[in-house]
Design goal:
mainly alpha; globular; 17 helices; Growth Hormone, Chain: A
Length: 416
């Protein structure tokens, strides 16, 4: 990696690390928060807060994906981090569940500004080899952020003061990250610069060395790459990723009667396993050079783990935690390949931010279903039925992915 590659990698990883601290703290603290509020529907309302954030984040990703290809990432990411920090502070000071739901909704809006523009900045500033290595460390940083939330930020906050401290801490970290970003990164003046930077050696039809400025239409590009069907795959992965991450503490507490701190800290095994799997997925992709094949391998890991969990739940807490960890590892492998590697393929059309936003929006459509839906489903049918539902979603995602293989192979062969 060049010096510029290393600088952008470190800066982007730090930004995403901070962003994840302010994203998963509500999910981690939820089992403790339900005991703070006297309302009988506290669990459902907090699940609604997760759903509202997922909806606002998912819809925002579509909008901010288009914005990110047209507005300098320096300012978009800065605004998103400051706004997200303010939303975390609002939750930390709130005593009203409705206010928490509203604040978490706007937290999703602010966070939707970050990922598409971050990917665009990295794609423009970094070399091809540097991007493929750098994006791996950004994904690792996000998992380390989740580890810190579950293993330190939320449990320590509860032990020394209350869950509120976790939100004050996240708000301060995100605001500081926003300031560091805007002072450190340069501005990309236009989308045209992005296309020129990524198409070295391109020639006009008359054979001159002047860079081509050919414009590509969005929908033909999407259908050529089988993005509509891949959108369904990412929805399934998002439902499982956020469902497992958000509800594991509650599942352990309800099934095995663990106290809140023990359940939260046990959940830290998910991102720890996931971090190792993200590194492995990056290495696997660099070897196979095929996003669909790499994703299929991690879907297989998820299917096997959830199948085993359907037999283990209620029998062994340790085995349940291990199988959940392996299932989450598979899902994080899918996440790394589909949401970080796939958008880079669209640099030729100047649509990196747009595709990143679209695919990430699919992740949070799934997350929206999991937030409120799992709360209702688990209350009505229990956690065993919920695990079977997760397994069915994994089967659907795997089958949909297989149908993407042929078009994706043709698309990548045409746009190497």
């Amino acid at each position: 990696m060049t010096r510029v590659d290393r600088r952008i990698t470190v800066l982007s990883a730090a930004i995403y690390f901070a962003e994840y601290i302010g994203r998963y703290n509500l999910a981690a603290a939820m089992s403790e928060m339900t005991g703070t509020f006297t309302a009988g529907n506290a669990k459902t309302m907090l699940g609604l807060a997760l759903t509202l954030m997922a909806i606002s984040y998912g819809v925002g990703q579509i909008v901010m994906g288009f914005v990110g290809d047209r507005v300098p990432p320096r300012f978009v990411v800065f605004a998103g981090l400051l706004g997200a920090g303010a939303c975390n502070l609002a939750v930390g000071f709130s005593t009203n569940l409705v206010v928490i739901c509203v604040a978490w909704f706007f937290n999703g809006v602010c966070k939707s500004m970050i990922w598409p523009s971050l990917i665009r900045q990295m794609t423009c500033d970094m070399s091809e080899a540097g991007f493929h290595r750098g994006i791996l460390w950004v994904s690792v940083a996000s998992n380390l952020g989740i580890v810190l939330v579950y293993l330190a930020v939320v449990p320590v906050s509860i032990l020394i003061f209350s869950w509120r401290l976790a939100f004050w801490f996240a708000g301060a970290v995100e605001a500081a990250a926003g300031v560091a970003w805007v002072l450190s990164v340069r501005t990309i003046p236009s989308a045209g610069l992005l296309k020129r930077a990524l198409r070295d050696g391109a020639k006009d039809p008359d054979g001159t060395d002047e860079k081509s400025e050919k414009r590509f239409k969005l929908f033909p590009v999407l259908f050529a790459a089988s993005i509509p069907l891949l959108y369904l795959v990412v929805i399934c992965h998002g439902l499982l990723r956020d469902g497992l991450t958000s509800w594991m503490p509650t599942l352990l507490r309800d099934t095995y009667r663990l106290d809140s701190v023990a359940a939260i800290m046990s959940s830290a095994i998910l991102p720890i396993f996931s971090t190792v799997c993200v590194i492995f997925s990056g290495m696997l992709f660099l070897k196979l050079k095929n996003e669909m094949t790499s994703s299929a391998i991690f879907w297989a890991i998820t299917l096997a783990s959830l199948g085993g969990l359907s037999f283990a739940i209620g029998r062994s807490a340790i085995l349940t935690i291990i199988l959940l960890a392996f299932a989450m590892s598979g899902i994080q492998g899918v996440n790394h390949i589909l949401t970080t590697r796939v958008p880079h393929r669209f640099a030729y059309a100047g649509m990196v931010s747009t595709i990143a936003g679209l695919l990430n929006s699919a992740t949070y459509i799934g997350a929206a279903i999991s937030g409120y839906g799992i709360a209702l489903f688990s209350d009505a049918h229990g956690w065993y039925a919920t695990v079977l539902a997760w397994l069915a979603v994994a089967v659907l995602g795997t089958v949909a992915l297989v149908f993407c293989f042929a078009k994706w192979k043709k698309f990548t062969s045409e746009h190497k």
